[in-house]
C-alpha cells in the first residue's frame, strides 16, 4: 500500500466522493442519474490529464458494485479483452476502464463492439484527445461522450486537505503543518491536475524532516521545489498571481512594451504557460481585435509554437507576440458590440425571429409563412438587398460602433456606413 502514490490511494470509491466535475456527477446530473438508477451505458471521458477520468470510473464501479477492470488500449492485448469478456459472461456485466481509448486498433475494436452492443461490457473510455476526431465512429456511436474540466484551485485544495486528514489512505498518520501559501501553490502550479498536486504534496511531506516535536512543516519554498515551479509571490492570499496577469493585459492595452515584457517574464519564471496562452489570446481578440486581425492569427500561431517547444525556448515566440500586440493599433469594438447585444437580451429586449428568416426546410413550412418572401442577397447587385433581419422590437438597434484605429477596421466601417445609408434610403 505504501508504495502506491497518494493520488492512487485517494481515488474515490463512491460517486459522492468525486472532487469536481459537478456538471456530470453533481445531484441531478447525467452520470449521477445513471448510477442512482443503475442504468449505466458505455461512455467516453475526455479532458486533460489528472482531472478525474479514472476516479469517475472507479467511483461508478464502487457505487454500483459491478466488477471493475482496467486496461490500456495501447499496451494491453486482444487476449486481455477476451478475459474481461469471459468474466462478463459469468458475472453478467463488467465495467471496463479503457485508458487511451483513442489508441484502440481495429482487431481489438471489432472484438469489443458486440460486447458493448449487448451491454455485457460497460466501457468507460478515457482519453486526452478530442473523441470526435480521434476515436473511431463505430466506438463513438456506442458510447456517450462527456468532457471533463480542469479542477479549480479550491477543488484541488479541498482534495489535498482531505488527503492530509485521511489516516488510512492519505497522510493523516503524519503531523503536517502546511503554510497556506504552500498549499495554494500546490493547487495553482499544477494547472488543474489533481494527480500531480497530490503526488507533489506527498513528496513534500515524506521528504521533509520533522522538527523536535515530530511536526513536518511545509513552507512555500518546499512546495516550489516539489512542483518545480516558482511562485509569483510570497503573499498570503496569492493575489499577486492574478495581479501580474492583470498587469500584463493592461500593459499591452496601454502599448507599454517594457512593462508587458516584465510581467510576461514573471509569468514565465512561474512556468505558467497555460495561463500565458489563455491571457494572450484574450488580449488579442479583446484589445486588438478588428484593428489588426492578423495579430490575432499570429497570437494563435505563437502560442501553438510555445506549447510545442516548451520552456525555456517558449519564451521566444511569447516575447515576439507580446511586442507585436503592444505596438499594434487597438480596438475594442467587437467586445463592446457583443456585450451590448447580450445586455439587451438579458434585459428582455428580444422578440420573434421575422417569419421570412425562419427555417423553411421542412414540409409545411410555407403554409406557416416560414421563409416566405425571403430575399436571397446573392441574387441582387452587390450581394445586398434591403430587408429586415432583427426582431420588430429591435429593428433599429445598433451595436457595432467602429473605432477607426486600423486600416482593416476602417474598411469594415466604410462598408457598414454604406449599408446603413442604403437602409435609410
Automatic annotation (TrEMBL):
Keywords assigned: ATP-binding, Nucleotide-binding
**UniProt entry tagged with the keyword ATP-binding:** yes
Domain AAA+ ATPase residues, every copy = 39-151
What SMART domains does UniProt report for this protein, alphabetically?
AAA (SM00382)
Q: Which GO terms describe its biological process?
A: DNA synthesis involved in DNA repair; DNA-templated DNA replication
Q: Name one Pfam family in it.
A: MgsA_C
- Give GO MF terms, alphabetically: ATP binding; ATP hydrolysis activity; DNA binding; enzyme activator activity; single-stranded DNA helicase activity
Keyword Metal-binding recorded? no
Cited SUPFAM superfamilies? P-loop containing nucleoside triphosphate hydrolases, post-AAA+ oligomerization domain-like
Q: Which family does it belong to?
A: Belongs to the AAA ATPase family. RarA/MGS1/WRNIP1 subfamily.
What is the name of the protein in this document?
Replication-associated recombination protein A
Q: Which organism is the protein's source?
A: Desemzia incerta
